[in-house]
């Protein structure tokens, strides 16, 4: 026991005034005499301290960010997945004091590592105050905060796909469970995204939530909305300002204006905008953009109209849109590749 306490202090780089707090932080409920003697109460406290320090750093590092943007970054940085990764990074998982039923597992559930990080943060707070917690957390959190800010998605690929789906197709993506395997306490799920009559590549995840995020990432990859770099996945918001997207924007702006006019509802819906897309300048009097401008207000006005009408327009022209894009029937789920 004393060796675990000593090793924990070495690995986190802090010497505690009260080593009993370290022992409590390492003790899982499976071996504690009562749950009050486990690390659960410290976990509860540490979760709030972790959130506070993270919010302070985001507020300080990015003074121009709005509340919603800061919230997205925070939700990524203080997630259970991130805390579990920190426990692994610091090699803390093998220090957990577990009951016999938990100790037999060759690979511990990641939730135990996440809870351990939060418990140790709570212990630091009680032992040395907020400054002690800050000194431990800031070097760990700052790189994660900066990465989340730079990525443009904060690891929430479902949120990005929701934006793309609404802007391009006027509907929300559906997550379809294709298969599930394993015992109830360690079940894995195979999911795929269905969007606009199309079924995307499937994937496996250790939970439905994890599988949905990965399935959303695969769909975004197939839609050409992301790029992958050595630093991670980056949302290609700039793709909407490339020549290809600008061209698609011109056609969409013109057709949107036409579709809003009742006399032209028989025209098929063209390829839609991406996130933040804007039509380019007209290439001539006969160009689609020129047509939109002649209807009053130019491409900017057509774009504004399209933004408010996209849902109803896409629903009215669903069959024509699918035909125009030449999409095939969704593939058989059994033929989808596993990941």
Helical coverage, percent range: 55-70%
Q: Major sheet: size, sense and barrel closure?
A: 4 strands, antiparallel
Give the tally of β-strands. 6
Strand content: 5-15%
Can you tell me the residue ranges where pLDDT is under 50 for at least 5 consecutive residues? Answer: 240-244, 259-339
Question: Strand-and-helix sequence, N→C?
Answer: HHHHHHHHEEEEHEEHHHH
Overall spatial form: globular
Distance between the termini: 41 Å
CA-based gyration radius: 26 Å
Number of helices: 13
Mean of residue pLDDT values: 75
Structural class: alpha+beta
Task: Summarize the entry for a quick read.
This protein has 339 residues and is an alpha+beta fold.
How would the blueprint of this fold be written?
Elements: H1 2-12, H2 19-26, H3 40-61, H4 67-77, H5 80-89, H6 100-103, H7 110-151, H8 157-169, E1 174-181, E2 188-195, E3 198-199, E4 203-205, H9 208-223, E5 226-229, E6 232-235, H10 243-260, H11 288-294, H12 298-316, H13 318-325
Antiparallel strand pairs: 1-2, 2-3, 2-4, 5-6
What would you note in describing this structure?
This protein is α+β, with helices and mostly antiparallel strands and 339 residues long. 56% of the residues lie in helices and 9% in strands. The chain has 13 helices and 6 strands. It has helices at 2-12, 19-26, 40-61, 67-77, 80-89, 100-103, 110-151, 157-169, 208-223, 243-260, 288-294, 298-316, 318-325; strands at residues 174-181, 188-195, 198-199, 203-205, 226-229, 232-235. 36% of the residues are buried. Mean pLDDT is 75; it is low at 240-244 and 259-339.
């Amino acid at each position: 026991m004393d060796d675990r306490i000593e090793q924990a202090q070495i690995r986190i780089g802090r010497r505690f005034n009260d080593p009993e707090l370290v022992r409590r932080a390492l003790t899982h409920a499976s071996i504690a005499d009562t749950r009050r003697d486990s690390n659960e109460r410290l976990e509860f406290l540490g979760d709030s301290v972790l959130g506070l320090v993270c919010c302070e750093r985001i507020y300080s590092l990015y003074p121009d960010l709005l509340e919603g943007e800061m919230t997205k970054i925070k939700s990524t940085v203080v997630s259970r997945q991130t805390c579990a990764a920190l426990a692994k990074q610091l090699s803390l998982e093998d220090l957990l004091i577990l009951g016999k039923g938990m100790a037999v597992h060759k690979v511990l559930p990641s939730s135990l590592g996440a809870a351990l990080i939060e418990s140790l943060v709570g212990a630091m707070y009680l032992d040395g105050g907020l400054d002690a917690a800050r000194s431990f957390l800031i070097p760990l959190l700052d790189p994660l905060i900066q990465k989340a800010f730079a990525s443009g998605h904060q690891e929430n690929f479902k949120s990005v796909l929701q934006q793309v789906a609404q802007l391009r197709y006027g509907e929300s993506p559906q997550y379809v469970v294709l298969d599930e395997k394993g015992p109830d306490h360690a079940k894995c799920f195979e999911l795929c995204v269905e969007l606009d009559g199309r079924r995307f590549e499937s994937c496996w995840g250790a939970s439905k939530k994890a599988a949905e995020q990965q399935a959303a990432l695969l769909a975004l990859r197939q839609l050409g909305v992301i790029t992958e770099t050595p630093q991670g996945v980056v949302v290609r918001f700039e793709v909407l300002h490339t020549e290809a997207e600008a061209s698609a924007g011109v056609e969409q702006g013109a057709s949107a204006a036409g579709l809003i006019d009742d006399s032209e509802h028989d025209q098929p819906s063209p390829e839609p905008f991406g996130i933040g897309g804007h039509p380019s300048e007209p290439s001539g009097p006969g160009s689609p953009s020129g047509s939109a401008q002649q209807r009053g207000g130019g491409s900017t006005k057509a774009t504004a109209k399209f933004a408010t009408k996209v849902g109803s327009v896409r629903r009215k022209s669903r069959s024509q849109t699918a035909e125009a894009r030449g999409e095939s029937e969704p593939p058989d789920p059994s033929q989808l590749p596993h990941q």
